[in-house]
Write a structure and sequence with these properties.
Chain A: Facilitates the functional incorporation of the urease nickel metallocenter. This process requires GTP hydrolysis, probably effectuated by UreG. The complex is a heterodimer of chains A (227) and B (224). Chain A has 227 residues and is of the alpha/beta class. Chain A contains 9 helices and 7 strands. Chain A has one domain: P-loop containing nucleotide triphosphate hydrolases (Rossmann fold). Chain B has a domain of 142 residues. In chain B, 71% of the residues lie in helices and 0% in strands. The chains are: A alpha/beta (227), B mainly alpha (224).
Chain lengths: 227, 224
């Protein structure tokens, strides 16, 4: 957990990595979801919203590359009321907005807490990017990297910051493995070698309750955050 | 003044949200008005002498200690497009966040308390310059240069323009940036005694119109 203290010396907080809001209340846990285009980040966010929305107060920030498509998908699927979904425009570079210049995303999470809070959890979804795109610790407390079996079963072996360092690696669309010739056992072994003790989840959102392992991991993080 | 601090503030990588904005370049590219290095130079020159001059003068006045509230209202009056006013305040809020960590100061804290949703970016820029130990000309340089460097780097992404050509455009405009800064600082000094009406009110109608149209695009790379 990132519990950095505020550098401000009066007035409203300058930064928002601190665990407390200006009024002293605990802010929401912020979890980032990144990964390549089409790996199933938005589908995972939607599934998490459906399973967690009756347990906790949550909201979503999306970072699309050139449209509001991800936000609109979540709205269409009605996984959350519209006021709980915010789209950040990223100037063609989602990785800049989640890592190098996080100001627009910090505003989005703070505005959500102001307007629909108190919130327990905010999911920050990156637009599809490359294997080096990771979230700044100033923006999220933990991050999930989502890849899929159809993107090539050599991705875990190739590593990269997302695969190697994310707090949770999700290998999505396992139902497709036989159709695209991906070797799940090899992907699991490569991921273990790259990630030491960091967890990996293999999931297919086609099946009933497909997101349950990721949801369980999120619940653990929430419990640790509020402990 | 500290030349080192000026470089930190003027750096295009300073994390204050500018990367998501094209300064009207995306609308101009979409309308076929910017198609290459020559038309980019025309576009940037127009922006520098209108929006750039106004932003530089407002920033210089804020650096001289003119009341931020009056300057924010003056910037509003000089920005007809609601989309650009919203974007300017959003960028101001983002700059303020970065500035308060980089150069902690009571004036920046007070500005955040007074404008929780953001003041116009050049106002924040001027107060930031004060906090960083910089003067009105430094603040004006940051604003004037930003008015052309933003569209130039956006056009590299939008058109696949040769990045060396885009940088050449900026280098050729540098003497005009100097001239705009000199005008802006003169006007800002006038505003100290005579009030904000002494600030220039140059406007580029096509930038304002283009920004309103761009705000309605369903598919776009940049926020403005």
């Amino acid at each position: 957990m990132h519990l950095g203290h505020s550098l401000s010396h009066g007035g409203p907080d300058a930064v928002s990595a601190g665990a407390r809001r200006p009024d002293g209340a605990r802010r929401a846990l912020r979890i980032g979801l990144g990964g390549p285009v089409g790996s199933g980040k938005t589908a995972t966010v939607a599934a998490l919203c459906r399973i967690l929305r009756d347990e906790v107060s949550l909201a979503v920030v999306t970072n699309d590359i050139y449209t509001r498509e991800d936000a609109e998908f979540l709205l269409r699927e009605a996984v959350l009321p519209p006021e709980r979904i915010t789209a950040v425009e990223t100037g063609a570079c989602p990785h800049t907005a989640i890592r190098d210049d996080i100001s627009a995303n910090l505003e989005a999470v703070e505005d959500l807490e102001d307007e629909v809070g108190p919130l327990d959890l905010i999911l920050v979804e990156s637009g599809g990017d490359n294997l080096t795109a990771t979230f700044s610790k100033g923006l999220v407390d933990a991050q999930i990297f989502v890849i899929d079996v159809a993107g090539g079963d050599d991705i875990p072996r190739k590593g990269g910051p997302g695969v190697t360092t994310a707090d949770l690696l999700v290998v999505n669309k396992t139902d497709l493995a036989p159709h695209v010739g991906s070797d799940l056992a090899r992907m699991a072994a490569d991921a273990r070698a790259q990630r030491a003790h960091l967890p990996v989840v293999f999931q297919s959102l086609r099946g009933e309750d497909g997101v349950r392992d990721v949801a369980a991991w999120v619940r653990e993080r929430l419990a640790a955050w509020t402990a | 003044m500290s030349r080192g601090a000026l470089l930190v503030l003027a750096d295009g990588r300073f994390p204050a949200g500018g990367h998501a904005h094209s300064g009207g370049a995306e609308a101009a590219v979409g309308a076929g008005r910017v198609t290459g290095a020559a038309s980019l130079e025309d576009f940037c020159r127009g922006r520098l002498h209108t929006t750039g001059l106004v932003a530089a003068a407002v920033a210089a006045a804020a650096a001289l200690g003119v009341d931020p509230g009056e300057l924010d209202a003056a910037a509003d009056a000089r920005t007809p497009s609601p989309a650009l006013r919203t974007a300017a305040r959003r960028l101001g809020r983002q700059l303020l966040r970065a500035a308060r960590v980089a150069w902690p100061s009571g004036e920046l804290d007070a500005l955040a308390g007074r404008f929780p949703k953001g003041a116009h970016q050049p106002v924040v820029l001027g107060v930031t310059a004060r906090a960083a130990g910089l003067g009105p000309a430094d603040a004006a340089y940051c604003a004037a240069y930003e008015s052309v460097s933003g569209p130039a780097s956006a056009t590299v992404r939008l058109l696949g323009l040769d990045p060396f050509d885009a940088t050449g455009v900026l280098a050729r405009l540098a003497p005009e940036v100097d001239a705009v800064v000199s005008r802006a600082v003169g006007a800002a000094r006038g505003a100290v005694g005579e009030g904000v009406d002494a600030l220039p009110a140059a406007s580029a109608p096509l930038l304002e119109v283009g920004a309103e149209a761009h705000a309605g695009w369903a598919v776009r790379l940049f926020a403005t």
